[in-house]
Design goal:
This protein is an alpha+beta fold. The chain folds into 5 domains: 75 residues, no CATH class; 172 residues, Orthogonal Bundle (Lysozyme), CATH 1.10.530.10; 61 residues, no CATH class; 47 residues, Membrane-bound Lytic Murein Transglycosylase D, Chain A; 52 residues, Membrane-bound Lytic Murein Transglycosylase D, Chain A, CATH 3.10.350.10. It contains 17 helices and 11 strands. Helix 6 packs across helix 7 and helix 7 crosses helix 10. The radius of gyration is 27 Å and the shape is globular.
Length: 449
């Protein structure tokens, strides 16, 4: 009888402890540390999302409720700067921003995830394009870095990417992903840790090697504390950790996501200029989806380069191949221009919005100094000729535009509209990311130059 009373007391005490533990906690998530050890991270009611946590061993497996475990490699989840970014990205506006980015990533993220898993690289790298480009193939930074992985023009040589009058392969999700992961693997082998490899990706390998030379044996976090890096690089890994932490358990943060089925992209060679819209129509594909998958093409027309391949879902590759092999199908539109008095090749090119070299390649033997009145030229229909010719593409962005704030807008929503990062937009305008905007006030916004 005495033993039964003692057991009952123990049960009551245990129930009281559990009640106190869960009071005020929104949710409890467990981290499995290579065995029976667990780390609890519990949002408390005293602020939006402060974290109470204990240091952990690496790597660790994140096992959110009802979701598969995700193996994390990077250290620093318990750093103050990481916690700051977790709180920022898990705010209402931060979650809305991340939800939009996830939707934008759908055509590419399965390919990127598979390539990272095939190489055995850290799972956090799946989310690196979130902080690099907001998962936009068309993103351009202030310094001219372009594409999902933000390559500079002078850094693509080793990675099988080209920039021509037809295309910029920094916007090619396939080639840029392979190139970025190759680059990260190379930098990891040089510096010995993924945190430092990421710092090298952001700031340059020379910056990291100089930091290690001055502070032998220091890791990324120690080099940050010693201010061996600029502020952007100090925030780089914490931002990636925060985004990875939230997006690896989206339901916990109220982020609805439906992971798209992997279309199993494949590449099909194209040995002649082809308008993707016309190709899609003949092959029974979605024209906008095909153009999005091949976003490196400036005009939606493949270059006259037999080495070029378009990206299509593997399930539709046969249909595309049959269309391309049909020599009787006209797969590009042309204008026919009859030379008149006073015409010059440069003037014709400006009128049709086409580079002179493209007119020459479409008219073999053409000599622009000897244009003959009545001579007929074939002009690729890259644009509607009634429209003004587009300005040449530039590789830089300046914040010289303006935006008048409307009721209910935030820096997060405005950043999405202008395809920029909310942190960058905040810094340019001298304010905080979560500052309240006054209706009718003016903000500096990016303009591609």
């Amino acid at each position: 009888m005495v033993g039964s009373i003692s057991a009952m007391k123990k049960i009551c005490i245990l129930l009281m402890v559990l009640a106190e533990t869960f009071a005020g906690a929104e949710e409890l998530v467990s981290y499995q540390l290579g065995g029976a050890e667990h780390l609890e991270i519990v949002p408390e009611e005293t602020s939006a999302r402060p974290l109470r946590q204990v240091r952990y061993a690496q790597p660790y497996a994140l096992k959110p409720h009802g979701e598969p475990p995700v193996i994390f490699t990077l250290t620093g989840i318990d750093e103050d700067l990481t916690k700051k970014y977790i709180e920022q990205y898990s705010s209402r506006w931060g979650r809305n921003w991340l939800s939009t980015i996830l939707k934008r990533s759908e055509p590419y993220i399965a390919f990127i995830r598979a390539e990272i898993e095939r190489r055995g690289l850290p799972q956090e790298l799946i989310y690196l394009p979130v902080i690099e480009s907001a998962y936009s193939t068309g993103a351009v930074s202030r310094s001219g870095a372009t594409g999902l992985w933000q390559f500079m023009r002078n850094s693509i040589g080793p990675y099988d990417m080209k920039i021509t009058e037809w295309m910029d392969e920094r916007r090619d999700f396939w080639k840029s992903t392979v190139g970025a992961l190759d680059k990260l693997e190379t930098e990891y082998k040089r510096v010995g840790s993924w945190e430092l490899a990421l710092a090298a990706y952001n700031a340059g390998l020379g910056t990291v090697l100089n930091g290690l030379k001055k502070h032998p044996g220091a890791d990324y976090w120690e080099l940050c504390r010693r201010r061996a890096f600029r502020n952007e690089t100090i925030q780089y890994v914490p931002r990636l950790l925060a985004v990875s932490y939230i997006l690896s358990q989206p339901r916990r943060y109220g982020i609805e996501t439906v992971w798209p089925e992997d279309p199993q992209w494949t590449r099909v060679p194209v040995d002649r200029p082809v308008d993707l819209g016309i190709l899609a129509e003949h092959a029974g594909l979605s024209g906008p989806a095909l153009k999005q998958a091949n976003g490196e093409l400036f005009y939606g027309i493949t270059p006259p380069d037999p080495a070029y391949h378009i990206k299509v879902p593997a399930s539709q590759a046969e249909a595309v191949g049959l269309v391309l092999k049909n020599a009787e199908l006209a797969l590009i539109k042309y204008y026919f221009h009859t030379i008149r008095s006073g015409d010059t090749l440069s003037g014709i090119a400006r009128h049709y919005g086409v580079p002179e070299s493209q007119i020459r390649s479409s008219n073999p033997g053409l000599k622009d100094k000897y244009l003959k009145i009545g001579q007929r030229l074939i002009i690729p229909a890259l644009r509607e000729v009634k429209m003004a010719a587009a300005a040449p593409r530039r590789d830089t962005v300046s914040f010289t535009g303006t935006h008048l704030v409307k009721r209910g807008e935030t820096l997060w929503s405005i950043a999405l509209a202008y395809n920029t990062d909310p942190g960058t937009l905040a810094r340019i305008n001298g304010m905080g990311v979560n500052d309240t905007l006054r209706e009718g006030s003016s903000l500096k916004t990016p303009v591609t130059q």
